[in-house]
Design goal:
Blueprint (H helix, E strand, L loop, with lengths): L10 E2 L2 E2 L27 H18 L6
Antiparallel strand pairs: 1-2
The structure holds iron/sulfur cluster (SF4).
Iron/sulfur cluster binds next to loops.
């Protein structure tokens, strides 16, 4: 899937050469998983993204307690 100006080098004619199925940006195994928040609310990437951002924020604030 290629929408917009970015094209993934792992997209081979619509098939992902990492997850070995149809390209689904943000799916588990995708290079974007946890790195981006998608407008599609049920994207598995969104929860991983939120957790990553919370972790980074705690690191930046020097708070090493686990919530
Ligand atoms: S699923 Fe992710 S890693 Fe795979 S081709 Fe699509 S955008 Fe690239």
């Amino acid at each position: 899937m290629n929408q917009g100006g970015w094209s993934c080098p792992h997209d081979v004619e619509g098939m992902c050469d990492i997850i070995h199925k149809e390209c689904d940006p943000g799916d588990r195994g995708c290079v974007l998983y946890g790195k981006a928040k998608f407008s599609c609310e049920d994207s598995p990437s969104n929860e991983a993204f939120e957790k990553r951002m919370e972790r980074k924020m705690r690191e930046m604030l020097g708070d090493d307690t686990k919530a």
